[in-house]
Amino acid sequence: MKSLFEQMGGTYTLQGDYYLPNLTLPIEENKPIGIWGQRHMRYLKQHRKVLYTNLLTSGKLRSYLANIDEQAEDMFFRLVEQMAEREGITEKLKAEQPIEWVGKMNALREAAVEIVNAEVIFA
Question: Is 117:39 a contact under the CB 8 Å cutoff?
Answer without folding.
Answer: yes
